[in-house]
Design goal:
The complex is a heterodimer. By secondary structure, chain A is mostly helical. Chain A contains 13 helices and no strands. Chain B is globular and about 75 Å long. The chains are: A mainly alpha, B alpha+beta. Chain A: It is found in: Cell membrane.
Chain lengths: 282, 330
């Protein structure tokens, strides 16, 4: 068998492996652990330069309590949710349809349109920063959640279409033809045949887009300001006041802000099913 | 009334001319088999009839109506795909009833038709199962059931047995034959297997390179092939062809003799060296070589013939077929 299982390698190799793996793991998780540790320190630890030692006192409840009850964090979290969820729904729904159209129908310009969807992904968004800001200002959408949502949907649909179109292309085409011969209308084919088979793709894409949008900082800063519309990624910086950086609260806020994508992943996990089309053909 | 009429149907994919002037008539209740080697255009022809491909020119009439511009769903046909194409997320009952539901049939009608079809196909115990939980033969029957419940004017089968193993293939073949008798529906069946064609068909259409070579009943084609291709395609083992000048010097004709028409004789025939013997019990197939040509003889019963042995083969001249240089029968 290749590669040789670690149990069957020489003892020296096993020991090296067993020491290096935990080491690599710790190294990998170090930033996260540091943030976790920071989030339970009192502010005084930072002023005294005690970054890496034992916390002088454990302030888990104080810090997280402050984040939830004495700051704008809940507001920012809600904003994030109100931005991310509509974006996920919008981008996934749109790309299901574009993917179906581009994956199933053979028409002139199909590839051209498909390439344009892909090409959109290659435009660096730093270039778009100023025009998009001007656009939202002119449309009266600057510093609104809806403006951010619309922009995110427009920007994510390109990638989503690429993903969905390729997934639909991989479905057995006979299924579509069989349905057509059976007299099932095209939109019903989409709804009753293709959509159920796309469940794993929809789940995967939803998690991916949710994480993208939830973690977006760039556009949040460019298109919004203040607790009315800003999502949590941008909102965390409000713990940095003019004279004091409240690292302990920023850390606690960051941990809180990082949780929803993780929860999303586990919530969607049962939909990641391989072989949904098993038994369709042959 | 004819169930299907094809008039001068042509189909090209870009530069490639796949179907060339196809003219076929299928009578009401007839079982017609399109047969030909792979790549001859038989599946494309079926797809043109189904409406999944458009004919480049020519007319397709189903049940007397011109359907060139009618979508597949409105043609009154049902198609069984080679790969079954079952909806994997629906159980057997829903697979069979989906189309009826779309037609807005009442629940009673749906239940009745599905019950009837599943009884006919022995699927009653599997209605709750999903396609992935079925064997190949059962999936094939579901695919057929899905066609039956719609009570179409015309059934189209696209190599439905090619994914089944030999024993199952024979059973399913019988089932399809029975089905044709029970439903008395018009059926078109595409296959590359000449045995399926011979056993199932009322009428066989032999296709080669997008052209109809010959149309007729199985025995007509077997006994009266118009050319060397049809003669060689039907029958197993295939007809022996002895090139020009093989039997008598200067004869420009190719001589075809069916393996079962060859017999062993003591003298005055073809002298051939045995290369291989297939003992089938009921028959013995002798594959021998004479003057660089391989000849297969199918002898009735069991014969003690050894490899390397020289045998003399003869045939009755009236059982031979003669073909000219172009392969036409003369």
């Amino acid at each position: 068998m290749f590669p040789t299982p670690i149990q069957k390698r020489p003892r020296a190799a096993q020991i090296t492996y067993q020491t290096l793996v935990p080491l690599a793991l710790i190294l990998w998780l170090l930033p996260l652990l540091a943030v976790g540790l920071f989030s339970i320190r009192p502010l005084s630890d930072f002023t005294n330069g005690n970054y890496w030692g034992m916390p002088s006192s454990f302030e888990f409840f104080t810090n997280y309590g402050k984040v939830f009850f004495e700051s704008d964090m809940p507001r920012y979290l809600l904003n994030s949710l109100l931005i991310t969820v509509p974006t996920v729904i919008g981008a996934v729904a749109l790309s299901c349809m574009t993917g179906f159209a581009l994956g199933i129908y053979r028409f002139r310009g199909n590839l051209l349109i498909f390439f344009m969807f892909i090409a959109g992904n290659f435009v660096p968004f730093q270039i778009l920063m100023v025009p998009v800001r001007d656009l939202t200002v002119n449309m009266g959408l600057y510093d609104t959640k809806i403006g951010l949502v619309l922009f995110h949907i427009a920007f994510q649909t390109g990638f989503c279409t690429l993903f969905m179109r390729n997934f639909i292309r991989a479905l057995p085409y006979e299924l579509i033809e069989a349905a057509r011969v059976e007299g099932i209308a095209e939109w019903r084919i989409f709804w009753y045949i293709v959509l159920p088979l796309m469940r794993p793709a929809i789940a995967a894409l939803a998690v991916l887009i949710f994480t993208f949008i939830w973690n977006d900082y760039f556009w949040a800063v460019v298109l919004t300001q203040g607790p009315d519309a800003q999502p949590v990624t941008a909102g965390i910086t409000s713990f940095n006041s003019q004279f004091v950086a409240q690292y302990h609260l920023m850390s606690a806020g960051s941990i809180v802000a990082a949780l929803p994508p993780v929860i999303m992943f586990f919530a969607m996990q049962k939909h990641f099913i391989a072989g949904l089309t098993l038994g369709a053909v042959k | 009334m004819t169930a299907l009429t094809l008039t001068n149907v042509n189909k090209s994919f870009g530069e490639v001319h796949v179907l060339k002037d196809i003219n076929i008539e299928v009578e009401e209740g007839e079982f017609v088999v399109f047969v030909g080697p792979s790549g001859c255009g038989k599946s494309t022809l079926l797809r043109v009839i189904a409406g999944l491909e458009d004919a480049t020119s020519g007319e397709v009439h189903i049940g007397g109506d011109l359907v060139n511009n009618t979508p597949p769903s409105k043609r009154g046909i049902a198609m069984v795909f080679q790969s079954y194409a079952l909806y994997p997320h629906l159980n057997v009952f829903k697979n069979m009833s989906l189309a009826l539901k779309q037609e807005k049939q009442s629940k009673a009608v749906i239940n009745e038709r599905v019950a009837k079809a599943s009884k006919m196909l022995n699927l009653e115990d599997y209605l709750e199962r999903y396609p992935s939980e079925l064997s190949g033969g059962q999936r094939q029957r579901v695919a057929i059931g899905r066609a039956i419940v719609r009570e179409p004017k015309l059934f189209l089968f696209d190599e439905p047995l090619s994914n089944l193993d030999a024993a199952l293939r024979m059973n399913t073949r019988l089932e399809i034959a029975n089905l044709h008798d029970t439903l008395a529906a018009s059926m078109i069946y595409v296959t590359h297997d000449q045995t399926e064609a011979m056993t199932l068909a009322d009428k066989i259409v032999v296709l080669r390179d997008g052209r109809v070579e010959q149309i007729g009943s199985p025995m007509e084609l077997y006994n009266n092939p118009v050319n060397q291709f049809v003669a060689g395609f039907l029958g197993s083992p295939a007809m022996n062809f002895m090139p020009a000048g093989f039997v008598s010097e200067g004869d420009p004709r190719t001589i075809g003799v069916r393996p079962e028409d060859l017999r062993l004789q003591d003298d005055g025939g073809l002298s051939a060296t045995v290369q291989h013997v297939e003992h089938l019990g009921g028959d013995t197939n002798v594959i021998a070589e004479a003057k660089g040509t391989q000849i297969t003889a199918r002898l009735f019963g069991q014969h003690a013939i050894n490899q390397g042995q020289t045998v003399t083969l003869g045939y009755a001249p009236e059982r031979a077929y003669y073909f000219d240089k172009e392969g036409h029968r003369v």
